[in-house]
Amino acid sequence: MIGRCATLIQKMSNAASRFFKDEGGNQTIEFIIFFPTVMFLFLATVEVGVYSIRHVVLERGLDLTVRSIRLNQAPVNAEGIRTTVCRNSLMIPKCDRSVRVEMLSLDARNFTASSIPAATKCLNLDDPVQPADEVQAGDPNQLMVLRVCALFDPFFPTTGFGKSIPKVSGGSYALVSLAAFAIEPS
User: Fold this and answer.
1) Which one-letter DSSP state was computed for residue 123?
2) Are strands 99-106 and 134-135 parallel, antiparallel or unpaired?
3) CA of residue 16 relative to chain centroid, distance
4) 98 in Cβ contact with 133 (< 8 Å)
5) Burial call 140-175: b when 16+ CB within 10 Å, e when fewer
6) Can you tell me the distance from the alpha carbon of 95 to that of 98, in angstroms, rounded to the nearest whole number?
7) From residue 86, how far is each of 63, 106, 108, 130, 142 by CA, in Å?
8) What residues form DSSP beta bridges with 181?
9) pLDDT surpasses 80 at 157
10) 0.85 cut: is pTM over it?
């Protein structure tokens, strides 16, 4: 009986020794450890890149729109401003339905940072009734602030940067651009 136990223990010891010396499958373990990390970084990089490109395009569209308004070449109403921003911003999907415009006239002589409302007003995609854009037409040489809020859906909403972006409406995040200018006298 003791001889059988010793033989069984010897066989188990040999099997365990062969099992731990076998190097087959090492690549699989490395793949399982590193692939999710690399994919997470890749998806986060793509999301940050798309976010940055969209923000730059929105800023450029707003700058070109402000230039048109300053030179009295664009209509100074909500629809006209939105149309001009969308025409100048080529990478904004569904621009006419995802952009909200806010233009305020400010007193240049008594201007402080608190003169501009802190809360940016964006669209609420969950609400079928949207509030009207706030656009005040200014007089020549008056200080104006134009703020545009555009909503975008993240490319990868469950990973990386897409997961950490604060959502504003319906799973979309907001990009806000602001420009201050004076209307040129005509």
Assistant:
1) -
2) parallel
3) 53
4) no
5) eeebbbbbbbbbbebebeebbbbeebeebeeebbbb
6) 5
7) 12, 25, 29, 19, 25
8) 144
9) no
10) no
